[in-house]
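Q: Please design a sequence for this.
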């Protein structure tokens, strides 16, 4: 498939490339490391028994995460265009139907929708940086901290302000393009995020409960692991690496051909997992030191931890560092969610990069207002309430449900089937440049194991 390989280098001059493999790894890791690592992973681990869940999660990263990430980067690098066009080009070069690009369409639409409400949550993190820095958590009670979070959710004006601030930060970076925007941002934000995380972990070692946290995370108790816990691990492994959102296709379109897709995908998966585990080591000692519940759910970050930081030595300083860390994680993910959409707008319209970023970001910001209102003014509005499965679900809930449970797994499933069954094996071998045994392992995973695993998650989510 030499035609496929040579074609993938077209358009480089106009689009540019990542300046180095390290820049791509930082960007891809920045996309993968988000609220899912710092917010969701600790509490789902807590809900599902700790170490046994972590082991299953790591296995799922191997059988789902890495194979699909490699497939998405392959499509992006081979196509050298926005995700939808890249998918179409790869399909045509392999004599497959261009209809397979529906996978990229679903993924890009999912990224757009996710960013609309992700920006609202990113706004919460930005708001809490100020609260922590001003000492608003100091001496707080469960009631006062709960009232602070409840007051934020009840105020459309406050939520709109912070949603606007967060979206502006994202647009500002993406509008500056590959070198001046994406690369510069990740080369600053990602090292800063790691440093902040290590500082908070260092603080956690002083709580007297660090050993308990280590035991909780790394001593498997399989009696605490349920079938539901295994399925949650499967789903989270998929979500945490930013798969099914066309992001890795967009980032892959800027990747030089002398970079190994396989090695970089493994590196990104390792770095993402390390951050998730470090987040657990940062959070659980604080949770245990204050006699709090490890499986406290989403409120763990915005209600439980502020209470803990407010009643611990140097809690103001480390509470502030923690929420800056959370904001940075959300920011890097927000940038990656907007990039595929901006790529598409820039290529399909006459707008330059800045105009494309403003249009895409503005549309996303506008949709986010619906999520804001669903937290207060429209809290009783359940658009699909006539169906029992969606009774009481707000607009915010529905956007989250349909993207996470339907759109992402469906996009990932279609991508795995397409690359595994419709792309010429020789083309994959040439582009991935893996050792024969490693390629054989990946090829069997992407053809058989990965699609089955994603299909199980998909069906489970629909029936849950």
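A: Design:
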């Amino acid at each position: 498939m030499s035609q496929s390989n040579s074609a993938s280098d077209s358009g480089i001059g106009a689009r540019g490339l990542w300046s180095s493999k390290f820049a791509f790894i930082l960007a891809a890791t920045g996309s993968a490391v988000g609220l899912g690592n710092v917010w969701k992973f600790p509490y789902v681990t807590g809900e599902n028994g700790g170490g046994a869940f972590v082991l299953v999660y790591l296995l799922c990263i191997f059988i789902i995460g890495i194979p699909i990430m490699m497939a998405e980067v392959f499509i992006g690098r081979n196509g050298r265009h926005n995700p939808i066009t890249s998918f179409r080009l790869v399909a045509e070069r392999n004599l497959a139907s261009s209809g397979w690009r529906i996978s990229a369409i679903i993924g890009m639409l999912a990224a757009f929708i996710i960013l609309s409400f992700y920006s609202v949550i990113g706004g919460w993190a930005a708001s809490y940086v100020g609260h922590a820095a001003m000492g608003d958590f100091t001496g707080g009670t469960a009631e006062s901290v709960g009232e602070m979070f409840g007051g934020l959710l009840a105020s459309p004006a406050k939520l709109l302000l912070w949603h606007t601030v967060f979206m502006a930060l994202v647009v500002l970076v993406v509008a500056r393009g590959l070198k001046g925007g994406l690369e510069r941002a990740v080369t600053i934000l990602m090292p800063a995020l790691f440093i902040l995380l290590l500082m908070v972990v260092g603080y956690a070692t002083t709580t007297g409960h660090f050993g308990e946290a280590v035991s909780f995370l790394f001593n498997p108790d399989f009696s605490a692991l349920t079938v539901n816990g295994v399925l949650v691990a499967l789903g989270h492994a998929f979500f945490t690496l930013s798969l099914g959102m066309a992001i890795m296709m967009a980032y892959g379109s800027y990747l030089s051909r002398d970079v190994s897709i396989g090695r970089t995908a493994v590196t990104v998966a390792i770095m993402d997992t390390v951050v998730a585990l470090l987040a657990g080591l940062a959070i659980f000692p604080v949770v245990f030191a204050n006699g709090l519940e490890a499986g406290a759910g989403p409120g763990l970050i915005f209600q439980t931890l502020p209470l803990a930081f407010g009643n611990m030595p140097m809690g103001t300083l480390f509470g502030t560092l923690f929420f800056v860390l959370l904001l940075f994680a959300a920011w890097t993910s927000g940038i990656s969610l907007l990039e595929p959409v901006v790529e598409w707008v820039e290529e399909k319209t006459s707008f330059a990069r800045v105009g494309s970023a403003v249009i895409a970001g503005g549309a996303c910001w506008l949709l986010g207002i619906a999520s804001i209102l669903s937290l207060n003014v429209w809290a009783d509005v359940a658009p699909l309430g006539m169906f029992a499965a969606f009774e009481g679900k707000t607009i915010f809930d529905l956007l989250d449900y349909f993207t996470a449970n339907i759109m992402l797994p469906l996009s990932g499933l279609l991508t795995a089937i397409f690359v595994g069954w419709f792309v010429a094996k020789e083309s994959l071998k040439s582009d991935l440049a893996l050792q024969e045994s490693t390629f054989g392992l990946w090829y069997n995973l992407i053809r058989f194991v990965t699609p089955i695993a994603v299909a199980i998650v998909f069906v489970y989510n629909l029936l849950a």
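Q: Thanks. Anything notable?
A: The CA atoms of residues 60 and 234 lie 6 Å apart. The two ends are 43 Å apart (CA to CA).
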